[in-house]
Amino acid sequence: MRAIYPGSFDPLHNGHLDVIERAAKVFDEVLVAVFVNATKRAVFNADERVRLVRESTRHIPNVRVEEGKGLLVDFAREKGVGVIIRGLRAVLDFDYEFQFALMNKKMAPDVETIFMLTNESHGYLSSTLIKELASYHADVSALVPAPVNQALVRYYQGK
Protein backbone atom coordinates (compact mmCIF):
# COMPACT_ATOMS: atom_id res chain seq x y z
CA MET A 1 0.00 0.00 0.00
CA ARG A 2 1.21 3.50 -0.85
CA ALA A 3 0.80 6.63 1.26
CA ILE A 4 1.43 10.32 0.79
CA TYR A 5 2.86 12.65 3.43
CA PRO A 6 2.17 16.21 2.29
CA GLY A 7 3.53 19.45 3.67
CA SER A 8 5.34 22.64 2.86
CA PHE A 9 8.46 21.43 4.71
CA ASP A 10 9.98 24.90 4.92
CA PRO A 11 12.13 23.59 6.41
CA LEU A 12 11.91 19.87 7.04
CA HIS A 13 12.64 19.21 10.72
CA ASN A 14 13.25 16.12 12.85
CA GLY A 15 9.55 15.86 13.74
CA HIS A 16 8.71 15.53 10.04
CA LEU A 17 11.56 13.06 9.57
CA ASP A 18 10.29 10.99 12.51
CA VAL A 19 6.85 10.66 10.88
CA ILE A 20 8.41 9.80 7.50
CA GLU A 21 10.66 7.10 8.99
CA ARG A 22 7.81 5.49 10.93
CA ALA A 23 5.39 5.70 7.99
CA ALA A 24 8.01 3.98 5.81
CA LYS A 25 7.87 1.02 8.20
CA VAL A 26 4.08 0.74 7.78
CA PHE A 27 3.62 1.40 4.06
CA ASP A 28 5.25 -0.13 0.98
CA GLU A 29 6.00 3.34 -0.35
CA VAL A 30 5.73 6.83 1.12
CA LEU A 31 5.50 9.75 -1.27
CA VAL A 32 6.60 12.93 0.47
CA ALA A 33 4.82 15.70 -1.42
CA VAL A 34 6.28 19.18 -1.05
CA PHE A 35 3.49 21.69 -1.60
CA VAL A 36 3.70 25.45 -1.91
CA ASN A 37 1.57 27.16 0.71
CA ALA A 38 0.66 30.61 -0.60
CA THR A 39 -0.27 31.79 2.91
CA LYS A 40 3.25 31.15 4.25
CA ARG A 41 6.38 33.15 3.51
CA ALA A 42 8.89 30.53 2.40
CA VAL A 43 12.62 30.63 3.06
CA PHE A 44 13.35 28.00 0.41
CA ASN A 45 11.64 27.68 -2.97
CA ALA A 46 9.90 24.43 -3.90
CA ASP A 47 12.88 22.99 -5.81
CA GLU A 48 15.20 23.64 -2.86
CA ARG A 49 12.76 22.03 -0.44
CA VAL A 50 12.36 18.96 -2.64
CA ARG A 51 16.16 18.64 -2.83
CA LEU A 52 16.55 19.04 0.95
CA VAL A 53 13.86 16.47 1.71
CA ARG A 54 15.43 14.03 -0.78
CA GLU A 55 18.86 14.47 0.78
CA SER A 56 17.40 14.07 4.27
CA THR A 57 15.46 10.89 3.44
CA ARG A 58 18.07 9.25 1.22
CA HIS A 59 18.58 6.57 3.88
CA ILE A 60 14.96 5.35 3.56
CA PRO A 61 14.67 3.17 0.44
CA ASN A 62 10.87 3.24 0.09
CA VAL A 63 10.49 7.04 0.26
CA ARG A 64 9.99 9.12 -2.87
CA VAL A 65 9.95 12.93 -2.86
CA GLU A 66 8.39 15.27 -5.37
CA GLU A 67 6.65 18.60 -5.62
CA GLY A 68 2.91 18.45 -5.07
CA LYS A 69 0.60 20.45 -7.30
CA GLY A 70 -3.08 21.33 -7.05
CA LEU A 71 -5.46 19.87 -4.52
CA LEU A 72 -3.97 17.20 -2.31
CA VAL A 73 -6.71 14.62 -2.99
CA ASP A 74 -6.40 15.14 -6.75
CA PHE A 75 -2.63 14.80 -6.52
CA ALA A 76 -2.98 11.63 -4.42
CA ARG A 77 -5.36 10.08 -6.93
CA GLU A 78 -3.11 11.08 -9.84
CA LYS A 79 -0.22 9.28 -8.12
CA GLY A 80 -2.35 6.23 -7.25
CA VAL A 81 -2.09 6.82 -3.51
CA GLY A 82 -5.00 5.90 -1.25
CA VAL A 83 -3.74 7.09 2.14
CA ILE A 84 -2.81 10.58 3.35
CA ILE A 85 -0.57 10.75 6.41
CA ARG A 86 -0.79 13.75 8.70
CA GLY A 87 1.51 14.29 11.65
CA LEU A 88 0.13 15.52 14.96
CA ARG A 89 2.05 17.22 17.75
CA ALA A 90 -0.78 18.33 20.01
CA VAL A 91 -4.54 18.78 20.33
CA LEU A 92 -4.38 22.06 18.40
CA ASP A 93 -2.93 20.19 15.42
CA PHE A 94 -5.80 17.71 15.58
CA ASP A 95 -8.47 20.44 15.41
CA TYR A 96 -6.80 21.96 12.34
CA GLU A 97 -6.06 18.64 10.62
CA PHE A 98 -9.48 17.17 11.38
CA GLN A 99 -11.17 19.88 9.28
CA PHE A 100 -8.92 19.10 6.33
CA ALA A 101 -9.40 15.36 6.73
CA LEU A 102 -13.19 15.75 6.63
CA MET A 103 -13.05 18.00 3.57
CA ASN A 104 -10.68 15.58 1.82
CA LYS A 105 -13.04 12.70 2.66
CA LYS A 106 -15.96 14.67 1.19
CA MET A 107 -14.04 15.33 -2.03
CA ALA A 108 -12.43 11.89 -2.26
CA PRO A 109 -14.25 9.19 -0.26
CA ASP A 110 -11.77 6.59 -1.55
CA VAL A 111 -8.76 8.37 0.03
CA GLU A 112 -8.20 7.76 3.75
CA THR A 113 -6.41 10.08 6.19
CA ILE A 114 -4.27 8.57 8.92
CA PHE A 115 -2.94 10.66 11.79
CA MET A 116 0.47 9.80 13.24
CA LEU A 117 1.61 11.26 16.52
CA THR A 118 5.10 12.64 16.39
CA ASN A 119 7.57 11.37 18.97
CA GLU A 120 7.18 13.38 22.18
CA SER A 121 10.80 14.50 21.88
CA HIS A 122 9.80 16.43 18.73
CA GLY A 123 6.41 17.70 19.92
CA TYR A 124 7.57 21.29 20.29
CA LEU A 125 9.13 21.57 16.82
CA SER A 126 7.68 23.74 14.10
CA SER A 127 9.20 25.06 10.92
CA THR A 128 8.26 28.59 12.00
CA LEU A 129 10.15 28.23 15.28
CA ILE A 130 13.20 26.79 13.55
CA LYS A 131 13.29 29.62 11.00
CA GLU A 132 13.05 32.18 13.79
CA LEU A 133 15.88 30.57 15.75
CA ALA A 134 18.04 30.25 12.64
CA SER A 135 17.41 33.91 11.75
CA TYR A 136 19.15 34.81 15.03
CA HIS A 137 22.00 32.45 14.12
CA ALA A 138 21.04 30.01 16.87
CA ASP A 139 22.33 26.46 16.50
CA VAL A 140 19.43 24.38 15.18
CA SER A 141 21.56 21.39 14.17
CA ALA A 142 19.87 19.14 16.76
CA LEU A 143 16.42 20.02 15.40
CA VAL A 144 16.83 19.45 11.67
CA PRO A 145 18.60 16.97 9.38
CA ALA A 146 22.18 17.93 8.45
CA PRO A 147 21.41 19.04 4.85
CA VAL A 148 18.68 21.36 6.16
CA ASN A 149 20.96 22.78 8.83
CA GLN A 150 23.62 23.56 6.23
CA ALA A 151 21.05 25.26 3.99
CA LEU A 152 19.69 27.34 6.87
CA VAL A 153 23.19 28.47 7.88
CA ARG A 154 23.94 29.48 4.26
CA TYR A 155 20.61 31.29 3.93
CA TYR A 156 20.86 33.29 7.15
CA GLN A 157 24.57 34.10 6.76
CA GLY A 158 23.53 36.22 3.80
CA LYS A 159 21.02 38.17 5.88
TrEMBL record:
Recorded superkingdom: Bacteria
UniProt keyword annotation of Magnesium present: yes
Gene3D superfamilies according to UniProt: HUPs
GO CC terms in record: cytoplasm
EC category: transferase
Compartments where located: Cytoplasm
UniProt similarity note: Belongs to the bacterial CoaD family.
PANTHER family for the chain: PHOSPHOPANTETHEINE ADENYLYLTRANSFERASE
Record function comment: Reversibly transfers an adenylyl group from ATP to 4'-phosphopantetheine, yielding dephospho-CoA (dPCoA) and pyrophosphate.
Name used for this protein in its record: Phosphopantetheine adenylyltransferase
